[in-house]
Amino acid sequence: MKIEIQGHSFVLHHHKAVYWVEKKTLLIGDLHLGKISHFRKEGIAIPLEAINTNFTKLDELLNEFDVERIIFLGDLFHSAYNTEWELFAFWRHSHAHIEMLIVLGNHDILPAFLFEESNIKVYVEDYTEEDFVFAHHPVDEARHAYLFAGHIHPVFALRGKGRQSLRVPCFLQSGHQMILPCFGVFTGGYQVNNMPHEHVYVVSGKEVLRVG
């Protein structure tokens, strides 16, 4: 699904990422790496293979698009250090030719030297380029530039005639911002049906569909 925002083209991908065509840049929100290992440590039975899912999805995006840069919109790592960071560091260095930067989220509590060692530029609050701002937290009102954010893990409830309901991840677009769905697996979501928006793009299987 390709859309235009302020004269620039953005591809909304079913892996819950956005590709900024003109800048050859991937936007990734809320990876929450380390969460699966945290759950397993607490005795929750999640298959170990699930850890690889995020990296598989990232690699598929890099194979599909001509990517020169990745902007992480916060919550790259879920909480305290665990071995999933080592997997990420290995993955990052295997793609050393790609520039990476992060706008820190509320879950990003890892020490700064880990980002530095992985050659990831860190922005504490937001990052501005062209007519766009990249941040972790959405805002209620328009700012000086169009905002891309994450944080709330938006999901949209699709309702059938028989009162069936299905919650699916979505991209939530308004006149001043776009909120990305959570990229990481095994994360919850916040229903956004009643939040102000102009368009909703839901992730359904292998495609992205506009439903509002």
Q: How are the elements arranged and paired?
A:
Blueprint: E1 2-5, E2 8-13, E3 17-20, E4 25-28, H1 35-41, H2 51-64, E5 69-72, H3 84-93, E6 99-103, H4 112-117, E7 120-123, E8 126-129, E9 132-135, E10 146-149, E11 154-159, E12 165-173, E13 177-179, E14 190-191, E15 199-204, E16 207-210
Describe the fold and architecture.
There is one protein chain. The protein has 212 residues and is α/β, with parallel strands linked by helices. It is built from 4 helices and 16 strands. The model has no long low-confidence stretch (mean pLDDT 89).
Report the average pLDDT across residues.
89
Q: What oligomeric arrangement do these chains adopt?
A: single chain
Class based on secondary structure composition and strand pairing:
alpha/beta
- List SSEs in N-to-C order: EEEEHHEHEHEEEEEEEEEE
Q: How many beta strands in the DSSP annotation?
A: 16
As residue ranges, the low-confidence spans are none
Query: Which percent band covers the strand fraction?
Result: 25-35%
Q: What fraction, in percent, of the residue positions are helical? A: 10-25%
Describe the global form. Answer: globular
Largest sheet: 9 strands, mixed
Head-to-tail CA distance between termini = 14 Å
Alpha plus pi helix count = 4
Q: Report Rg.
A: 17 Å
